[in-house]
Specification:
The protein is built from eleven helices and six strands. With 277 residues, it is of the alpha/beta class. The radius of gyration is 20 Å and the shape is globular. Bound molecules: adenosine-5'-diphosphate.
């Protein structure tokens, strides 16, 4: 099975409305088991090793990966998998929770802009500006005309990022309601996971259908060629991590990062092997 197949099955075409109820969160895109997924992760690790070096040495463009998904869909797990594959020198991570008072005194993109990746670097957002058309819409935190206007504002914002050298890729981790219940229960039971549990997660769970509609709208209205959405089935953690790494490696490859030239100003004979000379 080609890696291409893995990724292509997940990409949402620009302007297309994904039918989340028809995408199976338990799908593994043909990955048979953990072993096969581990082999994909290892192969992606090798590709990423080279690609991040090229990204850093070019020192001109950057990559932004946006992770969205319901509670317990595995955003933290994916961030950990990326941290395992990428040099912390080039990877910046940021999480976006309930906005603080100072953040609320600015427009919704202000706090996002502050965490964008520098040239030659990559950033992963655990939640993002999309919360401003998800939780904000479902809980009615701003009037409808305000959140509706944000689809266009987000598209223009991401268009500008692409024009100025930041490749943007957006991933929705698609978990089933049943799997989420199991994970939330485990969080409440396990003393080591309890810090992640919030009673508010159960309230959001009751709003499941409203969230799915909000996700479908957001993906339909903000997916573009320059900032595409991928819906990644997320019930199997091993498949989910392999799929996201595959997407990231592919996006970096598509940037066609050049190999750096030989450094200038080297003393004569510096590059020759002394044993050979
Ligand atoms: P997580 O649940 O991802 O582990 P936190 O405990 O920090 O992280 O909580 C994130 C919470 O913040 C989520 O419930 C999310 O819906 C909420 N949130 C994020 N952005 C916004 C926003 N712009 N407005 C309101 N709530 C937001």
């Amino acid at each position: 099975m080609s890696d291409d197949h893995l990724r292509k099955g997940l990409r949402v075409a620009p302007g297309e409305r994904p039918r989340l109820d028809r995408i199976d969160p338990g799908d593994t895109l043909g990955l048979a088991d953990r072993e096969e997924a581990a082999a994909v992760v290892a192969a992606c690790g090798e590709r990423l090793e080279a690609l991040q070096a090229l990204l850093a040495s070019e020192d001109r463009r950057s990559l932004l990966l946006v992770l969205q998904g319901m509670d317990a869909s595995g955003k933290d797990g994916v961030v950990r998998a990326l941290c395992g594959a990428l040099n912390p020198m080039i990877l910046h991570t940021a999480s976006f929770g309930v906005p603080t008072k100072p953040e609320l005194r600015h427009d919704f993109l202000w706090r996002i802009t502050r965490e964008l990746p520098e040239r030659g670097r990559m950033a992963v957002f655990n939640r993002s500006h999309y919360e401003d058309v998800l939780v904000v819409r479902v809980d009615g935190l701003v009037p409808e005309d305000e959140w509706r206007a944000r689809y266009g504002q987000i598209t223009r914002f991401e268009e500008r990022l692409a024009e100025t050298g930041t490749a943007v890729v957006k991933v929705m981790l698609h978990i089933s309601r049943d799997e989420q219940l199991g994970r939330l229960r485990e969080r409440a039971q396990d003393p080591l996971k309890r810090w992640k549990f919030s009673a508010d997660d159960l309230r959001k769970r009751d709003q499941w259908d409203a969230y799915m509609a909000a996700y479908e709208d957001a993906i339909e209205r903000t997916g573009t060629d320059d900032a595409p959405w991928y819906v990644v089935p997320a019930d199997r953690k091993w498949a989910r991590n392999a799929l996201v790494l595959e997407i990231v490696a592919h996006v970096l490859e598509r940037m066609r990062l050049p190999e750096p030239p030989v450094p200038e100003g080297l003393p004569p004979g510096f590059l020759e092997d002394p044993a050979g000379g």
